[in-house]
Fold these 2 entries.
Entry 1:
Amino acid sequence: MTTTPEKAADAVETVTVTIDGVQVDVAKDTLVIRAAEQIGVQIPRFCDHPLLAPAGACRQCLVEVPDAGNGRGFPKPQASCTLPVADGMVVNTQATSEVADKAQQGVMEFLLINHPLDCPVCDKGGECPLQNQAMSNGRGESRFVGSGSGGVKRTFPKPINLSPQVLLDRERCIVCQRCTRFAEEIPGDPFIALVERGAQQQIGIAPDAPFLSYFAGNTIQICPVGALTSESYRFRSRPFDLVSSPAVAEHDACGSAIRVDHRRGKVMRRLAGNDPEVNEEWITDKDRFAFTYAVESDRLTYPQVRDTDGALRPASWPEAFTVAAEGLAAARKAGGVGVLTGGRLTGEDAYAYSKFARVALGTNDIDFRARPHSAEEAEFLAAHVVATGPEGGAVTYTDLESAATVVLVGFEPEDEAGAIFLRLRKAALHHRTRVLAVAPFSTRGLAKMHGTLLPTAPGDEPATLASLHDHAEHGIDSTSVILVGERTATVPGALSAVAALAAASGARVAWVPRRAGDRGALETGCLPTLLPGGRPVADAQARVDAATAWGVDTLPETAGRDGDAIVAALGAGELAGLVIGGVAPADTTDPAATTAAIEQAQFVVALDLRASDVTRMADVVFPVAPVVDKAGTFVNWEGRTRTFEAVLGSPSSLPDLRVLAGIAEELGAPLGFRTVAEVWSQMEDMGPWDGPRASMTPVAPAPSDFDAEGLVLSSWKQLLDQGTMQDGDKHLAATARPAVARVSRSVFDAIGPTVTLTGERGSVTLPAEPVDDMVDGVVWVPQNSSGLGVLTDLAAPGSRVTISGGNA
Amino acid sequence: MGSVDTLTPVLTKDWGTERSWTLPVYESRGGYASLKKALTMAQDDIITAVKDSGLRGRGGAGFPTGIKWSFIPQDNPKPKYLVVNADESEPGTCKDTPLMMASPHLLVEGVIISSYAIRAHTAFIYIRGEILHVIRRVQAAVAEAYAAGHLGKNIHGSGYDLDIVVHAGAGAYICGEETALLEGLEGRRGQPRLRPPFPAVAGLYASPTVINNVESIASVPSIIEHGADWFSSMGTEKSKGYGIFSLSGHVTNPGQYEAPLGITLRELIDLSGGIRAGHRLKFWTPGGSSTPLLTDEHLDLPLDFEGMAGAGTMLGTRAIQLFDETTCVVRAVLRWTEFYKHESCGKCTPCREGTWWLVQTLTAIEQGKGSESDLDLLLDQCDNILGRSFCALGDGATSPISSSIQYFRDEYLAHLTHGGCPLDPAASTVWASSLTRSGA
């Protein structure tokens, strides 16, 4: 153990202030309202929010300042949310000052004169800052109704839609501007603004521009009254009837903290949790509203086996375990079994698949990458990503703020990792971080990060990356960070170029997958070349280390097949069996081939949440628990672990690891665990590999094909699309960005406004949208916003498609 | 007693001249001579002259103009701006409008000299949008000044460049508040900004900015022409110079009277031919509706910053509204309060909600409803607005109420006992005498 020396340089400059007679040292520039919190005095407030710029609008936090630190006091009460402390300042809050107390009571009375007394039917009632502070800092009886000839409140028609999801009840609004400031400052989506004036002042939208922000739901959470509500939750429950459980969002690799509010076994809503190192206090609307997928009518609730008549029939758990074990044993003899795990598993479940493949099936044929992937990517992950984390100096959210330059490669943060987008925008705005995007066009998200486009057609990423080094203008150096998205795997040589750029410049690299379970699956060895903890399969010592930990004599020695190879081997009859968990063929490299492979496989065991084409083709189907029903751990893109407990207790809802343990026991190869806690302790015992890391053999870029016909296809998934985990909330779905084909201005002028694209797998017709800086010869379509998705309907990203006008 | 000799026509000296707003007439009467003189002076010397003159802001607050100019950090690499606040909207205030109508070039000349002094190369004149005629006059004057070489590049060979932008407001009283004005000028919603940073450091487009009233800027050419001593020889010890006093209401000859600061209301009333015949003064505002009103006890107070502060009110914009004994003070105050409710920008709670409530309480009293305790409630509402609002609009809304209750509490109570207004509202009108005659 080493001890950390006292870091004098990090000492924060402090000043001494006296609040309510109590002397306290606080950091320079602290606002009085927060300095007071440090001595345990809560000054009432509405417009103040620690993550938003001060406004001083509501005037609720007035305090008396008899000495501003210069011996003179302020003649008027001051808003403590806008006043920074000064050395020697004396502040008297409502606790000790009659002036401050009366000022606060006066403001509270004013706030209430036009506020409806509809608390009994208001969603905010019971958790309402206005209600609570009216009780703590207001008078019990209103003087308004008894004044003059009886006060008349201002009224508005009841709620109006700011977006298909967010409703505004203008009567309840106290125009604190938290929502408008959030929209402008945090995601940069200023679609809501103050309109009208005086008591008629209200939040409004332009007639043709609803509040379509991926982060709109945060405004509902920070609204200090019940003015903003969601279609999804409005009038559904009372806060005091809800049980709140901390959890981690399962929709992306950000690891965002959330709070799940539930009642009698049913999730009613989700809120952002407060994790300053990760998502601060913000989440995407997907994290907030997309949770009803777990209670869709096609949810699997009991195991099924294929009967002699060829149809699936319900089965008991023991029978299903036995049938699965017998089928897998036979398939293993007939050529082997592959394992496809998908990317939505908890770390514990992923570990179970990883161990199940090696110990129970005797194979390294396992891959979590249910998407286009490559061997180059597997090498990159083994060499540069696995077994890194914040404690080992890997890139963190905080590092994004201090980085001078962040390069995005194959990664669109607003669509693919909302918390990274918000942090990068903050970095760009407040720390002048420069964001460079290696991409074919400037997205709205890039503009909001004040980013710069490094125009690059799909396939040309290696060349762009190579040009970054030694390029004074771009200045990539050791203060830079390269964020590389999972899509980069589809470009030969791109990950090699990333590694080369990092090596040459000293820049740090982080890999950002899309799904919440991807990084955990990598760490636990759901790859054909890696065992848990980053142990390379090719390293005999690593194999021995894992075998010892697992109490087995040997582990399979050769690297296994990756996802594409498993599909090919199943199709070719080289593999006979398949264990598949939460994989949608439409996401995979070649959806038709994947579907055919599942169909052709001799024996398929499917673990899934809901019935799907995969479960309908399987020989044994096991229902598994949605994340809300189980404890577990997500490893986010930083390599940071975020552990959570089960939110709902549902005895019939078992995690994947329990199912796999049951099958393994029937196979005579017990995994040594049945619970999440047992898996966790096995993983702890095993630990990360401390031997040499695998190295990466650089891959050469594919030669550019300048003479080819058509346009190069660029594609990624938008945050809100047809993903099955967004099923069940039509209001959320209505806020999704529509499916459009983005083309260059010249293509649009020649062919638009509707285009038909034809690729190797079919044709799609979409409205076109011109993009001014679209790289010539590139077309972009959202990957899963129409039809069966681009991979099924059109072509593989990076391939060529032809374009024609209209419904050709 | 006051006489015509008391008047000091400087700003108003050309107002009676034929086509006074044109450049040839202005120049024939000595216009733009101060500019030529100023361009030969060191910029800091101009600031010193304005400082030494004792000129205090004529927009109401009375902050020393030269000191405001010296706050501009000249080492700041950003451009400096001069913004003229011509958003004259206060009830009763009507001095800048006729000044810009009659002598727009006086303002333009002042703008050029002032901009030169603070090293601004762009100046803005933000004119109240409703006074279209005035906007056109100023626009025409600026165009004439460009054509004559008073504006543009290398003005009169001095090497100094200046552009003037005439901006029309969009109809909000709040935009007379200097930071709300800047928001409006930048194309944003007109609401006051958080201070600090102050405009001198980060004003228009986050750059150092001086914001001055029309009359302040129009006073600058005379200071350059005649010197600081000449200017400070007028007025009182701490309120130097001259100013326009706008008399309106129940006086025989309402209008603009330019006089040294410190003149008394008695003198001004004499100059204007006295209170409406057959009537006597009941109450008056010294500087617009947001300055606490005074009564006939205060006729001999000096109309300067200190004299008015001593009486618990403010000199403001010297917008003297006079009301004789036929006027119901409750009714007058209610009208003003309705104005503030209508013009409250909505940003802060006390002003937004307080004015909403004040109007309701006052309306009830004016109609004879409510009770005596409502007077105390009104005063308590005012106490909860005054000094609690984001800007001075809320403070201003309380002034007529608390001051009128102070001087005329009995009249408020009379409404309650009388079941409505005890006065004949028609009696206060200008046609009251004809009504009486026909009714008689």
Entry 2:
Amino acid sequence: MRYLVKRINNLSFWIVFPAIVFIFFLIPVLAVLSSVVGDYSDNWNHLYNFVLFDYIKNSLFLVIGVSIITLIVGTGTAWLVSNFNFFGKRFFEWALILPLSIPPYILAYTFTGLFDSYGTLNNLVRNIFELDQSFIFFPNIRNIFGAIIVFSFTLYPYVYLVSRSAFLNQSRTVLESGRILGLSRFEASFKLAMPMIRPAIIGGLMLVIMETLSDFGAVEHFAIPTFTTGIFRTWFGMGDLTTAMQLSSFLLLFICIFLFIENRSRKNAEYVSNSTTHTPIKVEQLNKNYSMFAFIFCLLPLFIGFILPVSELIVWAIYYNPSFFNEAFLTSAINTITLALIAAILCSIISILINFSIRINRNSILRFLSSFLSLGYALPGLILAVGIVQTSTFIDSSLLEKTSFAITGSLFGLVLAYIIKSYALSNNTISSGMEKISSGIDDSARILKSTGWNLLGRIHFPLLKTSFFTSILLVTSEVVKELPATLILRPFNYDTLAVSAYIYAAEERMRDAAAPSIAIILVGLIPIIIITRMIRSNQKY
Amino acid sequence: MKPILEIENLSHSYDSENMNLSDISFSVMSGEFVSILGPSGSGKSTLLRVIAGLERQSSGTIRINGNVVSDDEEYFEPERRNLGLVVQDKSLFPHLNVLENVMFGIKNRSDKNLIAKELITLFKVSEHESKYPNELSGGEQQRVALARSLAPDPQILLLDEPFNGLDDTLKNELYRETKNIIQAKGITVLMVSHDKKEIEVLSDKIIALDNGKIKEQNLT
């Protein structure tokens, strides 16, 4: 008993705080999972008998299609820019990441405007060749194949980034040994290089798959029955939150499988760069024909995933929507930035406090907690929203019943969802910044009687300023893009840029969606600039 | 004379299989300059970290000024032991300038600026007081680290190979200056080093450590 009392007395803020954050992160997930052991309504029976198979079939078809294309495009472009010199290589090195700034739902809206029967491109073909108005050159894009294209060309940069990094970290001597043993340049690439970087590629691919499964905006716009659209319709169409949660648990199971594979791949990927005798790969000059092929191969995904949609959005914004900065746009822009900054600052502060707790306590349980919290990135926004609504409704009806406060429909739930989804981004930035601070600095400060908040405020925080602001920028850009959680958890009539774009697109007012979409893309470019700078600074060493 | 630091049967291990320090006992008198000599991996730095409170020993007792600061039941955190520490890599705070670094550990004193400036002058770095650590040479950084460690007026100064990495001329100059300042201030020093010459120049008493055990002590 005395031991227990002593242990409780020793519990400092630096132990209690991470535990509280852990509970906040865990509750929405548990709320969703708790539905599995509850009663199953007639709606569930209906879903199970008639549509669940379609959800699984469509989700798997999407995942397979997107995986194949992202694999070819992501590794192909990474292989070219890492191993060869060709016209435009320096430009493609960073430009190939640009599509990452466009959320899939915005590409879906833009492609609808471009490829619809009376969309920009079909009109263009008819006008150029003076064809009949009923002639349709580009096929309908609002189907599962269109969705595969949309996801593939917005998400391939995940595979590109990890593949490129793995290619650059490969040992030249291994490839040269293969060549000496009789392999051609291409054989060495496919028989040695590809298998060596396979774990890294699988890791990137799992991120693509999780993003595809989590998406709501694009599949909803293309009217494809998947888990996310099913959850949304069950909840808002049938008014059945319990069944929506049961369906969410199903999706969560899928996500967990891919998350497990992603984690395993990340561990296996370490051997790629472990060589102590690392010699950078030799970059070869391509001849004119191959150079042309490489240029086109790299330009194509960039064109489909960035140049084409951005050009269309700019044209819409300039020519068709003169009231670009109208009041509605400004209001939703201010709402978005306010919300994003609140979430980003809170998330970055939480990351700093947790990483500092781990550092001063050297506690393996805290380290595990932080890794667990980082898994939030894999949670679909829709599932988070379902869990948070369920939890906040419970709190309002039990704990806050006799007060005038209510957290349902307030910004609290929305900010919590953003923080859970973005913690991994912030944690990676802060923890890598903290690793750069020598432990000798801490020792010296402690000897000089600086501990706890004093140590954090006078030593760690000033040294982590850059990481802190980078974290704020990264989380802000992530939050600005988030659609399903915002759509469900926002207070009544509280529009953000993502919600405005969604509402305009749902009303088939594609041109009105241009202004919020462009603003989202501009904010989405922030992490791209940061990533590009990081890649360039790493290349110096 | 009363010992200011007493170490009794101190043992320490990072894991259950290997003992880094085994049954160490010695004492240091007030105002003494005691050095611990030993090869790399002999446990010198670990011993200093345990005395500073940065690591907790597995068994044994540490007393400062007759008070137990660490044994099986009691454990004072480093900030409660009133010690100074200078380590090999200096560990100056990179975001603070020389004056701010030296002032860092002075608490609740209205004249902390004055104290810091006096030490900076003593260690001959006053012309660099507004410079940041990355703008200083290795020797200048070490002078600032020494000044910073003395600023809070510690009972005992712990030095972990403080002159490592400096050239011989600079070392000799720093030995002389450090010894003069320490003698003038009457500070007790416990230094660890593998450099026999350095230890012979500075120390009143030498303890030889090997493989985590005291081989010889009271050598002078």
